[in-house]
Each structure stands twice: as structure tokens, then as C-alpha cells.
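Subgroup meeting minutes
Present: P.N., E.W., G.H.
Scribe: E.W.

1. P.N. recapped why we're keeping a running log of single-chain structure predictions: easier to compare across weeks, and new members can see raw inputs and outputs side by side.
2. G.H. added today's entry (348 aa).
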Amino acid sequence: MVAVSPVVSRARRRLLIVSDGRPGHYRQSEGVAMALGRLRATVVDRVELRLRSQPLGRLLARAVASGLLSPSFALRLGYGHSTLPAAADVVISSGGRTLLANVALARLLGAPNVFSGTLRGLPAEAFAAVVQPYAEAAGKPRHVVALKPSPVDPDAMRAPEPWPEGRRAALLVGGPSGAHGFSDADWAGLRTLVAAPGRIAWRVVTSPRTPGEAADQLIAAAGASVEAVVDFRSAGPGSIAAALDWADAVACTEDSSSMIVEAVCARRPVLALLPSARRLRPDEAGMLDSLAARGLLARRPLAGIEPAEADRALGEARPLIANPLDDLARALAPMLGWADLSAAAGSV
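Output recorded in log:
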């Protein structure tokens, strides 16, 4: 358990990130923290909690939100922890397994809270702000409609060469998920991209979702066009940021909308590679459709993809112009009582 000092600095806002250990979730929380850091000096504390049971967690979260259960007791029941953070100015989390901790810690510490994601039946009034990328959230109480928060600051990154003058592309590889199934032809398409000679220089990055056998085959297939293969099994988390900074453009398998959004936030042209089996939730499909309609995302089937087709598709996508961190900071500031700072976003 992370111990947090009971003294909150007046000069800095103390942000507490509650994590379930999943990169796709805690990186969204890091994005929220980075956005708030655009407004004023902050210090970030983290605590990682493992929920004993998701149904129990939802029941306890509703009870805490309704004032029917002590926050500290609910945290002990849900996560098995009796040691609690002592102070925070804002509580931040993402992922359904952190909802209980988000609500309970906010109540316990008297701090406003931000959740990135869907609320799974909890009332919006249990949060100071809820960040969602879905058009359906527009107009809902306490909701902010924005790109999925990402700890990517394009202002701090290398300026990419415009495509197609640029030739360096990151290939972000995911794997099977609840909404996506990968066929043999899909994996063959990825191997074709990395094996065939072409104009593009690839940096391949696998993820926790990439099956070991598929990763091994990609590594074995990598040809002269591959600058490097970053294998998650040995490299661990954190490799995507370096790949985005290196790349002029990004191709990403569609199973990870978080990786796609991070690439968009990095102000690179982005190509989504679509596996054969796709069963996206309507809100996720709508979010990706919106990115495509804005010209920020090109899409191609993964099976049968060739390097020349990937090159053409990347030329269709245009990079984002704004910095999403500034947009998110401006939206969150008044919801957290930082209204006097909202105009400063982008000037810090």
C-alpha cells in the first residue's frame, strides 16, 4: 500500500491515482493527471488495489455512493486493505474494478474525484467529473466528452516528418480480446508487413495481449525493414511512448482503442488494422467512427494487408492539431473547483 503524507502542500495539488494494474486503465488516469498538471503544480501518488469480486465491488460502491456504508469498511471488504492514503486533493481512476475505491476514497478524504470510463450503473453524482469519449455522454450530468485520456504530451515529443516524406512507422500489436478475434490470416498479415521489403521502416511493439506464439513468429519474420521489435514479455510496460516519439506515423491493431487514441494524441497519422472477427460495443464503434470521420484515423482489414497499402492508408489520415491535454484541462478545471485556472491550460 502506498503511504501518503498527511500534509498536503499548499503550493502543489496532490493527485491520487488508483490503479487496477492494467496499463489500458492506469494510463488513462495518468492522462488525467497530466492534464491537471497543465493547470498548476502537482504531485502524483499511486495505489494499486485488487478487487476481490466485481459484483461485490459494484454492490459496495452503490452502498457507499448512497451513504449506506462506511467508505473505510467498504474498502476493507472489497480490497482487503485496512491501511488507507491519508490525504489527496483529487482522486483519479479508470476501469470498473477501481470504481469502489474511487468513490470510497473520495468520500473518506473529502476530495473531488475523476473517473475515466463508463459508470456501470453508479450515479454520476458520486463523482466530480466523468470522462468519456462517447457522443452519447454529451449533456449527461458531470460528464466530459473527450478523447480517452492519454499520458502523451505531443508538445514534448519529436516533431514527426509529414507523411509520406516521413518513413518511420510504429506497429503496435495487440491480440484477442472480448471484442476481437484474430484469425491465422490476420497474424499472417502482420508478418507480411514486417517481412516484406518496402519504403516503411517499422518499429514493432507487442502488448500484454499478444499471444506468445504470435510474438515469436513476428520476431522470426522481421526483415530488413524492421528497425526494432520491442517484445512486451521482456521490455514490460512503457515502450509505446518511445515508439510514438520515434515514429512519423502509427499502425495499430484495432483491439486496443487506448493504443489508437494514444497514437492520435501524439499527433501522428494513424492506421487501424481490423481483425477478421469484430464485435465492438456500439459506443466504442461510434468513437472509432468519429475519429475516422474527422480524418484522424484510416482503417484497413488486417488479413491480406501489404506494405504498399498500409503506406497509402497512412497518407489518408491527418494528424491532430490541438493538444488534447489542454482541452481536457479546460473542461475539468471548473468541475474540480479550479475555475480560476481553466484559462491557463496551454500556457503552463
